[in-house]
Amino acid sequence: MIRAISFSHTSSPEDEIQLLTAGQMKDKIGFVPQNDYLLPNLTVRETLHYAAELRLPSTIDRQTRTAIVNQTLEELGLTDAADTVIGGFGNIRKGISGGERRRVTIACILVALPSVIVLDEPTSGLDAFTASIPGAYIHIADLPQAYQLLLTLSELAKRSRTVILSLHQPRSDAFALFTRLLVLSKGSVVYSGLTSRCLPWFASHGLEPDVGVNPLDFLIDISSIEIGDDDKHEASQARLYRLVAAWKENGAAYTAEPMTGAEKVAVSKEGVATRPTSERTLNRPGYLSQVATLTARASKNNLRNHSQTIGYALQAIIIGVMLGLSYFRLGETPADIQSLKTLCFQHLPAYFYLTMVYSIYRYCHELVVFDRESADHLYKAAPWVVSEFVSSLPLNVIFSMLFTVIMYFMAGLRVDSLAQNLFTLIGNSILVQLGSVGFALLSASLVRPFESASLVANGLSIFLLLATGYVLIHIPVYVRWIRYISVYWYGFRIVTISQFRGRRFACEGVSGIAANQCVGDRVLTGLNISASDSLWRYFVPLLGIVVALNVLAAVILTFWKPGGVKHAGRPGSSGKEVIIDSDMDIARQRVNVTVNQVSLTWSRPRFFILQPTRKEILANISFTCPSGQITAIMGPSGAGKSSLLQLLAARSMNAGPFARFERNGNILFNGKTFSRADSNMVSFVQQDDDYHLPALTVRETLRYAAILRLPHTMSKRSKLGRAEEMIRMFGLNDCANTLVGGPLLKGISGGEKRRLSLAVEMLNDPAVLIVGASSDLLNIYELIRVDEVTSGLDAATAHNVMLRLKAISESGRTVMRGIIIGPFSLDTVTLHQPRSDIYHLLDNVIVLAKGGRTVYAGLRKQVESTFASQGYTIPAYFNPADFLLDVVSIDSRPLYEGQSRERVGKLVSYWKSEEEKRGHVEGGNTMDENGHPEPVIVQEDRLTPMWIAVPVLLERTLRNMWRQQSRLIVAHVVFWVRLQQAPLSAALFLLFFQRLSKGPSGGQDRIGYFQQLVGSMPFLGLFSSVAIFPAERDVFFHEYRSSAAYSTATFIIVTTLVETPFTFVANILFALFTNLVAGLTTSPRIFFEFAFSTFAMQSFGESVGIIFATFTPSMGLSTFLVSTVISVMMQFSGLTSLSVPKWLQAIAWSTAVKPGIRLLVINEASGLHLNCPPDTIASGECLVQDGSDLIDLFGWKDLDRTKLVLIIAGLCVGWRVLSWMLLMVQMRGW
Fold first, then answer.
1. pTM of the full structure
2. Which phi and psi (to 5°) does residue 70 adopt?
3. Which range of residues forms the domain containing residue 384?
4. In the chain, N or C terminus with fewer CB closer than 10 Å?
5. Where are its TM segments located (predicted)?
6. Pair (741, 603) in one structural domain
7. SS3 of 581, please?
8. Which DSSP symbol is given to 607?
9. Are residues 533 and 621 in the same domain?
10. Cα–Cα distances in Å, from 900 out to 317, 621, 860, 1045?
11. Are 38 and 50 spatial neighbours (Cβ–Cβ below 8 Å)?
12. Looking at the structure, do residues 496 and 598 belong to the same domain, yes or no?
């Protein structure tokens, strides 16, 4: 609804009304989306400063812009965080909180002072403490961030600004701020008109709010359909239909009122009315000003991206050193000369291809910001591309030079005319680097998801690399044109001419055909390169290609807008039957949870330039969660609620690099110290719902979860019956057969996904239920990346769900939950305040202040008296939850911070004295029927047996993959990824190689052919892993920590079983093209050995991808690391370089690449005979004459092919076993 709003009324005298086109009107609209799109390494002040420079008219001077920025910072309570970086980008740098990011997003729009402001959930994540509490202890100016924002918007509306916003259950004190209300339910209008006439309209239909009830809560309740009880469901549905019908029939007449001349506006496709003032033409900065501003912004963002800088440096050093070792101090023998030829080519993909992979990852993130800002018409694509090029130029130049210098001197390249040759190579490296980065930008411009963009780039890179003229000397005419657009073709020729022209090698004792390699000009002839070519003939076009790639990217960014989501439907009738009966019989137990003097501190010791740091998260917290009761943990942002819940669930927490958590105190379950081994008793609804597989329905998700979570002694029918029971309990009937959905597949709503997460955790009827921070069921309407027009439905659902939790707790379960006011994030999460009717369903309340300090811990019924004794009386008709959070929150604005800190300090001291009086934590063991402490019953088998888990996981994974391709999700057609990539790559190879020649160039062609084939296979495995493994990993990580746990061995077996058939079939097809069709030596044995070798190398790449993805949550970082490892291993394989030191050759035997290459070459050499006329032998064009010459060139003695096959098989299995072992280490926290 919000996104559909394009125009609005403006107030102006009727005689001044003129028409603006839709494009001009967009410049007057400021839209604040739900998500935050910000550069991570800029401070808050810098972000607003650059937003002001881009959004405000160029006629406004710097001093005025600065004043506007400072005023906006103050209005939104961002002064304290003004000089803190935004953070984010894979959680590498934390930065400001999620709520502060929300305010920064709003501030970026407000600095432009737009005529129309459209906001989608602007108060999400804002602290909610209010000014409605008596001024005796909270200053009258100590306004809540959410309320203060609404007041700011209200003031803007009074200054002839039109403000349109969507909210999910705002507080009652905000009701009077709204001039008009639009109440929606399931897309239908329930009311639309003046706020003052809203309640009378519903009163005329027999619906009036009770005294003291938030009018907005009332509106949401009557516009919602209740879940659970059939009678209430039907009654609420009938009421809603009646209200919708009444509005359709009489609503327009009810709100009809005469329009003044100032309100009459002409709205049409041609134009929109507005005032013909100087504001009409928004004179935003021109191209040069945009370039200057964007370049300054991007330069700061890149300069502060320390992980990126370190990554570039490590890449340059590691690849440079590895290439230097692989080609260490090349001599002047024929083998060394062949290695030098290979190095001239191999250094291009070894370094610059990896740079391209990381650049794609970076641009896929940064283009999200570009898409958002370009939608606001802040700047054109061309200035942005120029700014990116200029800002990243220092990194590209410095580290390209570093790589080149390391490789040049370690490999012992040409020393005569050293300066000329060295700087020729450096200049070439810089231009190839810039071309690779430009190609990365071009790929990311076509598709935004990293997986898809990297696949596009990989496919196109094959063309560009094959066109260089090294892998294949004589390129077919119909693809020969590709070399003129390949930076690698120009780069290879520049380096080769520089190293060989006019050079004569010693070659002591060498004679015959091998002596032809000792003359540099003849080497160039063999490569079909003219020794008389001037280098400028290649440098100038190379520079032109760099410019052309960036220009083409700018054109694509201007006219092509990728993105959007597919809407999920119902996949079919399968699974729609309802199984009612369930004979579930799980031993129930009553568990008291006691937290005794628990403290948690984050610390980081001194490390190089990092100073030692300590931060107290929890400060000696003590409380009891009695069995059969609901305990709520409340507190503002930074109170440690989420950390406490993680401890209660025995979840491991990541402290970050070089840091650790220090924990003291005890957590007892019925008097027994709680550990991770007991975690099967606990269900933890974690912060986000992204772990659900997107292409499964709600019913399928619950059924698979039931089979995995419930005891294997239960029948399958009973397990499915339990899943149906959860569907009914949590009101998921209407969406039971709808796909869950994901980022690119819009399925169920955010509120429904919340309830699905809770239903999954409740399947096994846990003894203790912990609802994590962002899973706040009091605020189940909180949505992430979902535009929810039926906001009232989810708010009302929250009350129904809490009633069910209440019933669950009364049956003997211990329910703990965190109620969050304001932002708190493990990821970026936004939440709202709880409703008062839900608050009264709680049994116990723990109130924490910032820093993890206890303000209250005990019965909810004693909260009022405890705070009243300190002089803080809850006003009549005021939400107690709001009151508690008002009192314990700190206003971060400098003027009021000291006063609020003093207030909170007194509250903490008071409760500390109360605890000292009590002397111990009440509660402890639950007593059985005989009055004895009831022991904690721990199930012996926490893990689902492999014989149950493997078939279920196989079916679930294949169904999810198949559904995604059937829904035509272009960016995630994962079902065919493994089956398609290898055959498509083979088809691309055949475009160039056709049937390999048996003429003079046949030897060089085969060497280049095998290098390209073998070099691509591990990367194909890596890209398959990138496209498929992350989603499977996230689901496994979640389920392993929950009652759906299955072993790491089970997960690896299922992953391997899903992968192997597709990969093997793909490699059979790959061998069909690259062995049979290409004209290589073949026989049934050679064919299958060829397919098996390439399969093992692809499997190796996928195993390495699994290993790195296990330890690094960011697949971009994983891809960067794995690409580097694979590239290094390729250099040691013995095919790219014939001069690898012995100890590096030994390391290379640890992968399937080296034995695989050797097997392929030996098989080809067994029947190879080339036709080499005498003149081609004399000129050096003919490298080898038969297979024995080829084997001699590599210097191999052991040609036992059976041994090589066994080694390949062992390594293939070994690397997958290693991935399993490292996964087990990660999951068990060893």
1. 0.70
2. -65, -40
3. 302-560
4. C
5. 309-328, 348-364, 385-410, 422-443, 455-479, 538-560, 1013-1031, 1043-1062, 1104-1130, 1204-1225
6. yes
7. coil
8. B
9. no
10. 52, 22, 24, 46
11. no
12. no
